[in-house]
């Protein structure tokens, strides 16, 4: 039998120290390397990206970074960063984590939202001081959602680059096009251009690897099937069982920086009566939860609508469409894992 908890009863807190020490790849990417990446033979840009990142990593030395370098050293030559641009599911995070594992420390690895949350917790100046001593800062899922993020990350990247810190990022959007369709990006072209100037762009083409040769997403279960499936899949484990609507309301009261702690120790997820999310703010919060579940490789069982109907047609065609497609892709992969055994 599985032990049942509810995410809706959890109200996690994360200290500043926990935010700093948590800047490393998730367990899903804890052992990856350049050699474990499997490029698609039909997509030569994938092999080229591996070589580009390996060369970039070779340039990270013990002399890079540090406040002393910022104050007294010469300004670093060339661009400080490398930027992996490509669709979801082509292995960008795998390659970014491989770079992190191969590089000397101190170093940091986090999602875009984790860095913006870090600034909120520490203040901008203290964040710059903390990260300026690092040799490498990796930013996964670089996406500008609002003008405040644009100004903030433009300043942060510029100051870290000036300090000699090497930067590496992944995104579904070219750096010069960040923010398009989401806010009045034309009003912030200077900040966006400053961001773009920090990076050399490496394009990775290809289809979502989670769909290569894999079966279609499993159909949602009936509510009556959930208990039997849960005990077959997660026997002896800790499972978070929640009504989907109640979970969405609960997420509004938990800062996204704490979603990693929200699911800490959970072996499986069961959602009852999944329905299409109608409001953008709710949908964007849910995307962060989907990313954290994928990071920790937490299998999902669900009843209600299939995951390709989680977001409205307008959302799937709007400014945040890449986020929503990524979430659907990742949740589909976790749903496959959640239905790998037949109930006894």
UniProtKB/TrEMBL annotation:
<keyword id="KW-0132">Cell division</keyword>
<protein>
    <submittedName>
        <fullName>Cell division protein ZapE</fullName>
    </submittedName>
</protein>
<keyword id="KW-0131">Cell cycle</keyword>
<dbReference type="GO" id="GO:0051301">
    <property type="term" value="P:cell division"/>
</dbReference>
<dbReference type="GO" id="GO:0005524">
    <property type="term" value="F:ATP binding"/>
</dbReference>
<dbReference type="InterPro" id="IPR027417">
    <property type="entry name" value="P-loop_NTPase"/>
</dbReference>
<dbReference type="GO" id="GO:0016887">
    <property type="term" value="F:ATP hydrolysis activity"/>
</dbReference>
<dbReference type="Pfam" id="PF03969">
    <property type="entry name" value="AFG1_ATPase"/>
</dbReference>
<dbReference type="GO" id="GO:0005737">
    <property type="term" value="C:cytoplasm"/>
</dbReference>
<keyword id="KW-0067">ATP-binding</keyword>
<keyword id="KW-0547">Nucleotide-binding</keyword>
<dbReference type="InterPro" id="IPR005654">
    <property type="entry name" value="ATPase_AFG1-like"/>
</dbReference>
């Amino acid at each position: 039998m599985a032990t049942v908890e509810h995410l809706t009863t959890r109200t996690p807190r994360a200290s500043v120290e926990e935010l700093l020490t948590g800047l490393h790849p998730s367990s899903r990417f804890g052992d990856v390397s350049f050699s474990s990446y499997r490029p698609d033979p039909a997509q030569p840009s994938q092999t080229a990206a591996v070589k580009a990142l390996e060369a970039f990593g070779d340039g990270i030395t013990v002399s890079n970074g540090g406040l002393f370098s910022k104050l007294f050293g010469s300004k670093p030559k060339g661009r400080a960063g490398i930027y992996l641009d490509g669709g979801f599911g082509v292995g960008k995070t795998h390659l970014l984590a491989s770079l992190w594992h191969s590089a000397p420390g101190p170093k940091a690895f986090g999602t875009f939202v984790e860095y913006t949350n870090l600034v909120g917790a520490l203040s901008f100046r203290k964040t710059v001081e903390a990260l300026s001593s690092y040799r490498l800062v990796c930013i996964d899922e670089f996406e500008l959602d609002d003008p405040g993020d644009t100004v903030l990350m433009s300043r942060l990247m510029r100051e870290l680059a000036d300090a000699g810190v090497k930067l590496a990022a992944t995104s579904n959007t070219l750096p010069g096009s960040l923010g398009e369709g989401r806010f009045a990006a034309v009003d912030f072209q200077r900040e966006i251009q400053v961001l773009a100037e920090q990076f050399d762009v490496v394009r990775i083409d290809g289809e979502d690897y989670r769909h290569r040769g894999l079966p279609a997403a499993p159909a949602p279960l009936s509510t009556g099937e959930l208990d039997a499936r849960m005990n077959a899949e997660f026997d002896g484990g800790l499972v978070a069982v929640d009504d989907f609507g109640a979970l969405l309301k609960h997420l509004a009261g938990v800062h996204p920086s704490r979603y990693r702690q929200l699911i800490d120790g959970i072996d499986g997820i069961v959602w009852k009566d999944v329905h299409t999310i109608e409001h953008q703010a709710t949908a964007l919060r849910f995307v962060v939860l989907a990313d954290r579940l994928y990071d920790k490789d937490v299998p999902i069982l669900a009843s209600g609508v299939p995951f390709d109907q989680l977001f409205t047609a307008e959302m799937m065609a709007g400014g945040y469409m890449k986020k929503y497609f990524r979430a659907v892709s990742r949740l589909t992969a976790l749903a496959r894992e959640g239905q790998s055994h037949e109930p006894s």
